[in-house]
Specification:
Chain lengths: 397, 129
């Protein structure tokens, strides 16, 4: 791999210990994936923030990096294990809270913006078309590549941090034109609507991609999609298909940049969506927890929840998970008061996937196919997917 | 017998090989406190990898696995070195941050559990004694 003199200095330790370790990570990845050189990144999104996942060792690694590491580019964080202001109301214990704050402090010491959200693109960390970035968080990676047309591989926590501290990433994979071509055509022959509907579609297509061993689909038959629907779709297709990039005819910016795939075609019909939806509802489910905001809720979604909850009282634990800056907008717009008066809770900085809530609930209803997957895998909940309206109805029943 | 592979992380170490044909997920698949493989149905389930040279085809599972390896290093439960057929990013990053010698592009079928082997992560070689 060819390094510039500056990059070589970084690797030789002339820019400090954290930069040396970072360059070791990046050059090794570059060698593994046959990158010819590094490319400058303008933005980083870091995953691996919840203390539940990091543990004491992960925290120790971050603290070591924070001794002399400082970010070179705008860097934001994935959700943490708790709401930093409201953790007690969400049933998080004090020991965990203390450790979670130590993690966030270590990131802050490196100059990272500690917004703790999986939707950096809603809160000012947003590249434009064609820019190279180093993002972790599979749903945001898929959104950056597909919806924005920026370029990133699926980074892990340490490699994203390495990019933040050097401003570099090895140039391979989705940074190169040749790997952004679609490999298979997915024809959607039925109407798809709502965040839940697009989540179901993401699972239906993702499951097929895994079976076919393909990564980049070209999707036709979707005439219109909202930002929230695309956000849900990205999270779902990344979860079930491992997808980091898709093209959607008439919707995503690169759809006509590369030749359409020929030969490899599959269709998604009404019965495929029904089957996928059926698989996102568990037998014997009794809902005692409702959560909306996977990925983190937009201000549009919060407004919708507020209008549905107005004048009602929730009878079950109901979380709205979102980025703190979006929560602030909701506060100013008066939506938060309506939601909290109804007895629902905001869980900013965190989400139902990374909060340590295993054992707190039995059955979870969500509008997100991704949340179904991790609710089952991580928290052993029984799950059910539904529209936002159905979620609110369940919570107030 | 000296096998030539590719260097992933530097360092030379000699030890006893523990070999599996299964992939390894450090996050959830290995207990960082005991150093034992805990994945149900895994060929090495119940066995300790601490201080041994762990030989397996490739890594799998969550990217958090890199931190698990680091945690094992700090707990003194980590393997002494890692040899893979094909490295993946989780194992590579885990070895770099934990400073565990690592080599890949090795035909792992040529190594048997219990053999003494020398891993040279700086040259990218594995010597079976």
């Amino acid at each position: 791999m060819k390094l510039t003199p500056e990059e070589q200095d970084m690797l030789d330790g002339k820019h400090g210990k954290a930069v040396r370790k970072s360059m070791e990570i990046l050059t090794t990845l570059g060698e593994i994936f046959d990158a010819e050189c590094m490319v400058d990144v303008c933005s980083v999104q870091i995953a691996g923030v919840s203390y539940a996942n990091l543990g004491e060792a992960g925290l120790e690694f971050l603290s070591e990096m924070a001794e002399d590491g400082k970010v070179k580019v705008l860097t934001t964080l994935n959700p943490a294990g708790m709401d930093r202001e409201n953790w007690q109301a969400l049933g998080i214990n004090e020991e965990f809270a203390k450790n979670q704050i130590r993690v966030i402090d270590a990131f802050a010491k490196m100059g990272i913006i500690t917004t703790c959200s999986c939707t950096p693109y809603f809160i000012g960390n947003v590249p434009h078309f064609g820019q190279h970035v180093g993002w972790a968080e599979s749903s945001a990676v898929c959104y950056a590549n597909s919806v924005i047309g920026a370029r990133t591989n699926r980074e892990g926590g340490p490699s994203a941090l390495a990019s933040a501290l050097t401003g570099k990433t090895p140039k391979y994979g989705y940074h190169l034109d040749e790997n952004r071509h679609s490999q298979v055509l997915a024809k959607v022959n039925t109407q798809v609507k709502g965040t839940d509907g697009f989540g179901v579609l993401g699972k239906a297509i993702g499951d097929r991609l895994i079976k076919l061993g393909k990564n980049v689909p070209f999707i036709t038959g979707i005439p219109y999609a909202t930002i929230e629907e695309l956000k849900s779709f990205c999270a779902s297709i990344a979860t079930y298909g491992g997808t980091a990039l898709f093209h959607m005819e008439g919707i995503t910016p690169e759809f006509d940049r590369y030749p359409k795939p020929t030969g490899n075609v599959f269709e998604i019909n009404q019965e495929d969506l029904e089957k996928a939806r059926f698989e996102l509802v568990d037998d014997g489910l009794e809902v005692d927890f409702v959560s909306i905001g996977c990925p983190h809720a937009s201000i549009n979604e919060i407004e919708k929840i507020a209008s549905l909850l107005k004048g009602k009282k929730v009878k079950k634990e109901f979380w709205i998970t979102t980025a703190r800056p979006i929560k602030r907008i909701a506060d100013e717009a008066g939506y938060s008061k309506i939601i909290e008066d109804a007895g629902a809770k905001f869980a900013a900085d965190t989400c139902c996937v990374v909060a340590p809530i295993k054992g707190h609930f039995k059955g979870m209803m969500v509008d997100s196919a991704k949340a179904c997957y991790y609710g089952r895998a991580t928290n052993k909940f029984k799950v059910k997917i539904g529209t936002i309206e159905e979620c609110v109805k369940e919570a107030t029943k | 017998m000296k096998l030539k592979g590719r260097k992933i992380y530097k360092g030379i170490t000699e030890g006893e090989a523990i070999v599996t044909e299964d992939g390894i997920s450090f996050y959830g698949g290995v207990d960082p406190d005991t150093g034992k493989v805990v994945e149900a149905g895994h060929e090495l389930e119940g066995q300790s990898i601490t201080g041994k040279i762990l030989v397996f085809p490739t890594g799998k599972g969550s990217t958090v696995g890199s931190y698990t390896l680091y945690r094992m290093k700090k707990n003194n439960t980590a393997p002494a070195a890692i040899v893979n057929k094909q490295i993946d990013t989780i194992i590579a990053v885990g070895c770099i941050i934990s400073e565990i010698p690592c080599v890949d592009k090795i035909d792992v079928n040529l190594i048997k559990t219990g053999q003494r082997i020398v891993v040279n992560g700086s040259e990218g070689t594995v010597e079976v004694k």
